[in-house]
Amino acid sequence: MVGEYHLYDVIVVEFLREHATGAMMDLGLRLRYRFPHAILIFLDYWYPDEFYYKPEGDKSFGQFYEERRMPSYDVFQPEVLDGTDEEDWGYQAYNRAVLQEAADHSNAFVLEFPEPNNKKIDSLKQYGTLYLNDMRHFNEVGHAFVRDKIVELLASLNYDSSRSRVGEFESKDHCELWYETGSMSNFQSNMEMIQFKPNNQGNTKYALEVKPGENESSGTRNAIDIFNPWGEDEAYLYVSYMATADQNYYPNALAEIMNSHSKTTASYILNTTIPNGGDTEIVTNYKIGPVDPGNSVVHLRILEDTTSLTEHYGVYIVGLMLTSHQYHERIAADF
After folding, report:
1. Can you say how many angstroms the Cα of residue 304 is from the centroid of all Cα atoms in its chain?
2. What's phi and psi for 183, nearest 5 deg?
3. 135: helix, strand or coil
4. CA–CA distance from 138 to each of 100, 134, 143, 246 (Å)?
5. Which one, of 123, 134, 157, 133, lies nearest residue 46 by Cα?
C-alpha cells in the first residue's frame, strides 16, 4: 500500500481494542489522504474473553469456558453459564469515543456489537457462537457474520467505484522492520542481530539485542545510527520492540537520541510490560522524540538488574520509523 499505486475501493481495519489510542486517528487520516473516495470501515467487536468471573478471582471467560466445556464438542456451549448470575460477571468497557472520533475525522464507518452493559450473560450466549474456543478469535461463523455486515453496509451506500483514485501520502517516512527479514538497509547498528520465536513458537523472527553491561567509556554502547534528511526541519523517531505481560520476561531500557554535537534531543523509557496483555508477546511502538537535522545516534541502555529475569537479559529492538510528521505516542501491532 505504501510503495504501490493499487486502487482500494473498500478498506477494513481491525484492531486490538485494549490498545486503541489516538494512533487510530493518525491511521484513519493517512488512509483517507491516500484513498480519498474509498469506503473506510473500523471493526469494533468485543470478544467474550474480555469478561471475567468474579467468584474465581476475576478469571477470564476464556479460561472459565475452557475448564467447563465438553472437549469433544467444538460448537459453543452456552450451558457453561448456567448457575451464574449477572453480578458474577465483570466487563470493563473501553472508551469508544477514541474510535468514534477517528471515524468522524476520516469519514469512516464503525461496525460494532452493542455494549453488554447489564445483560452480560445474554450477550455471552448470543455472541459466543461466533468465536473459537479461546473466546478471542472469530470462527467461520463469526467471519461470515462480519462479512455479511460489511456487505450490508456497502449495499446501503450505493458506492460508485468509478470515483476511486489513489492520492499521494501527506509525508514520506523512513520505516524499517527487520522483525521478519533480519536485514537492515536504512539504519546501521553495532548491536547483534539475533533470532528468536515470540511465545517460543511459530516462525523465526529477528531483533537487535540491547545487552546489559554497556560501557560508555570503553565505547561499547548499544547504538543505532540515524539520519534526518528533511533539511532544517525536525524529524521524529519511533522504536519498535518486543513486549509481554510478564514483568520478568524482558527488562526495561532507556533510549536516548544524541545529535552530531553530542546533545541529547530526546529520551524515553521502553516499558516492555503490556498492561492486561494475557500471555501475548507483541511488537509495540513508542515515540522516542525529536531528531535534529543531519546525523544522530540512538543509544540504548538496560535500566535494571537482569540477574532475576527468567527469560531474557536484553531488550529486542525489531524496527525503527523516522518521520517528518509527529504522530501519537503509541501504536501496537500483533504479529
Report:
1. 25
2. -120, 145
3. coil
4. 23, 9, 6, 26
5. 123
